[in-house]
Design goal:
This protein is of the alpha/beta class. The protein is built from 24 helices and twelve strands. β1, α3 and β2 form a beta-alpha-beta unit. α8 packs antiparallel against α11 and α21 packs across α23. The longest helix is centred in the last third of the chain and has 21 residues.
Length: 525
């Protein structure tokens, strides 16, 4: 066993823990299909979102970890439930009247309101593929409509028909009385209207492979369960897919715990082992409420990528997937800087440490070097004190601090400078509140100004930080963080800020002197 594989077999990083759990599944023999199948699911009644990214990213991390500890080939399919009936018209699409006319049709039969694809389902599937491709994910796209109609599910659909009573025994106790009275695991696609119908199954003919149901107009119709004439209800459908394709691993959110439980039971009733699963926690907004697309609370994919690179979002997704996390704008700077801290640590780590480092999993082991010689939080503070309207303003300070840096040699720093200006103007600037110093703080600020005027140690961040510490101690600040809080509130208009010595080195000693004088004079903000 190689050193890397041995380290992976003992790593405490959660993707390796999941991978080892999955490997136990094949302790006696490799899968008959010849590969380990990972799956993620997607409901194409809406556009891809931040949860879609998180699920595919995290599943890919487990897949890559598995490949480190096993030679069994792997495959990831992104499955689109595009045969579902359109139950309500999304509020964010054009041609609302046309969409209402197409209610209850399979999504791949609903006319595309944007007029660019053969159906609404095809439109959103194309958006999903473009979305996943833009992040370089390696996957195989799978369409529910295509799988049902091509016969790929036929054998398992006939098994489901044969074991209809077992499936009902699993599902009925989970339903309310009204739903229980009309429930069937099979949803016929009406040959009259094309609608996906939620109606009871009146008769079953296992030998012929058919069911009988009643149309809304009262006519009883017999249809085969194969060939796309029916689809399964949500939980039986998930189980059918697991059983028919031999899915080995799938993760899902905490809100689907019951669905996973029931689908696993149905999968076993169909004669197959359900996949290994991971339940991840849901995202919360800044008030601690569950994020909801309909409410519009929390943070969207597009909003995150407006203010930071996708790697920072991947880092956020990696950290503690089983812990509920608040997903709102304030988490972005922290995620950016922690991501680059991990990048900088990586080259000096041993094999065990590297496999536990989030960047190993974000980059599938091909970890780049960080060129962020200035932290994102510091760029935000630079943007604040300079009232920057473009990133070139920040580069004026960066070049003086790091003469060898340029947009060409440090592209991640250049991109982050642009993100910082945008983030500052949209979120920091409107929330800035400056205050005047009290007598004790004013005396300390005057002392700091005078020491900076006399400073001859050059732009040394550590030496400057020690000097700032010394001023706080000499003026009796206890605890010392009260001194730094005063600096931030008087000079930066915020209660938190950067290491002040590093800020002075980057912003400039003369510029900081003027900033202190303006702060004491009440000329800021």
């Amino acid at each position: 066993m190689s050193d890397l594989r041995e380290a992976a077999m003992n790593s405490k990083a959660w993707p390796f823990e999941e991978a080892r759990k999955l490997l136990k599944r094949f302790a006696k023999a490799a899968p008959e299909k010849g590969y380990v199948l990972f799956e993620t699911g997607y409901g194409p009644s809406g556009l891809p979102h931040i949860g879609t990214f998180g699920e595919v990213m995290r599943t890919t991390m487990v897949r890559r970890a598995f490949e480190q500890i096993s030679d069994i080939p792997t495959k990831l399919i992104c499955f689109s439930d595009d045969m579902d009936g359109l139950r309500k018209v999304p509020s964010n699409v054009p041609n609302q009247a046309q969409m209402r006319e197409d209610l209850h049709l399979p999504l791949t039969q609903v006319r595309d309101p944007f007029g660019t694809h053969s159906s609404f389902g095809a439109h959103n599937n194309a958006r999903l593929n473009a979305f996943l491709d833009s992040f370089g994910f390696e996957y195989e796209f799978a369409s529910s409509t295509e799988y049902y109609r091509s016969g790929r599910f036929d054998e398992m659909l006939l098994t489901a028909l044969e074991r209809f009573d077992k499936i009902m025994e699993i599902m009925l106790p989970t339903l309310g009385p009204e739903r229980r009275a009309t429930y069937s695991p099979f949803l016929p696609v009406s040959p009259k209207t094309g609608h996906v119908l939620q109606v009871p199954t009146l008769e079953r003919n296992v030998g012929a492979g058919t069911i009988v149901y009643e149309e809304p107009d009262g006519e009883q119709v017999e249809v085969p369960v194969t060939g796309g004439h029916v689809k399964m209800q949500w939980k039986p459908d998930w189980a059918l897919r697991w059983a028919a394709l031999g899915v080995d691993y799938e993760m899902s959110g905490k809100d689907l715990i019951d669905s996973v439980t029931q689908a696993a039971k149905i999968c076993r009733a169909l004669g197959k082992a359900p996949p290994e699963t991971l339940t991840y926690e849901l995202f919360l907004d800044d008030q601690g409420q569950k994020i909801s697309k309909s409410k519009g609370n929390g943070l969207s994919m597009e909003e995150w990528l407006t203010y930071a690179a996708p790697e920072s979002l991947a880092y956020f997704m990696y950290v503690k997937p089983k812990t509920a996390k608040r997903l709102f704008f304030d988490v972005i700077p922290k995620a950016v800087d922690e991501y680059h801290q991990q990048l900088r640590a990586y080259p000096d780590q041993d094999a065990t440490q590297r496999l536990n480092n989030p960047v190993y999993h974000i980059h599938s082991g091909d970890v780049p070097a960080s060129k962020m010689v200035v932290p994102f939080a510091m760029l935000l503070n630079l943007a604040s004190v300079s009232s920057a309207e473009d990133k070139e303003t920040l580069w004026g300070f960066i070049r003086r601090y790091a003469p060898d840096a340029s947009a060409e040699t440090h592209p991640d720093l250049d991109a982050s400078a642009g993100f910082a200006v945008r983030y500052y103007n949209d979120f920091v600037k409107p929330a800035k509140v400056f205050r005047a110093p009290d007598a004790k703080e004013r005396a300390a600020l005057e002392d700091l100004r005078d020491r900076l005027v006399a400073w001859d140690g050059g732009p040394d961040p550590e030496a400057l930080q020690s000097m700032v510490f010394a001023v706080g101690k000499d003026h009796g600040f206890e605890p010392l963080r009260d001194w730094f809080k005063a600096l931030y509130e008087v000079l930066l208009g915020a209660s938190q800020g950067p290491r002040f010595g590093g800020f002075v080195a980057l912003y400039g000693i003369a510029e900081t002197v003027r900033l202190i004088e303006d702060g004491m004079a009440g000329n800021l903000g």
